[in-house]
Amino acid sequence: MSRKRIWAALALLALIGGGYYLLTAGSGGEGGSGAPMVSVTVPELTAAARLGKGAFDTNCASCHGVNAAGQDGVAPPLVHKIYEPGHHGDASFWRAAKTGVRAHHWPFGDMPPVEAVTDEDLAAIVLYIRELQRANGIN
Q1: Residues paired with 75 in a beta bridge
Q2: Which of 1, 7, 40, 61 has the fewest CB atoms within 10 Å, measured from its CB?
Q3: For the chain, what is the radius of gyration of the CA atoms?
Q4: What's 106-127 look like in SS3?
Q5: Taking all residues of the chain, what is their mean pLDDT, rounded to a whole number?
């Protein structure tokens, strides 16, 4: 292999490594702090969304954080543009909770199914998340 090709290969590896670092730095990679990843404005919730908050706190907050703000190194925020309804519809939340989901946007690893969550809980949780999203400019 010529020196030019070796240097080109090394440069490519450096670019890939640098891109990975920029993508994951401070966004919840291994060894994160567990701190909230986003600031969430909590609106006056509807009665149904308050039920969803209770179900979220019981079934989801241990990973996705208080008010779905995520936890650095643990799980992503659900109050985030990635989870806007046009990209992740309500069915995506249902599917993730019921069957789990492979990691594809964040470096947290796969999400396992949430065994204890009921269909009634899920309907209320999704409503709660959507109300939080709207209050934070995610439509």
Answers
A1: 71
A2: 1
A3: 18
A4: CCCCCECCCCCCCHHHHHHHHH
A5: 86
Rounded CA separation 132/36 (Å): 15
Could you tell me which residues are beta bridge partners of residue 71? 75
Model confidence at 86, pLDDT cuts 50, 70, 90, reads: very high
38 within 8 A of 80, measured Cβ to Cβ: yes
Q: Are 133 and 83 in contact (CB under 8 A)?
A: yes
* Of residues 38, 44, 24, 88, the one with CA closest to residue 66: 38
From CA 42, how far away is CA 36, in angstroms rounded?
A: 14
CA distance 100 to 109: 11
Residue 1 has pLDDT above 50, yes or no: yes
Q: Provide the pLDDT for residue 2.
A: 72
pLDDT of residue 19: 38
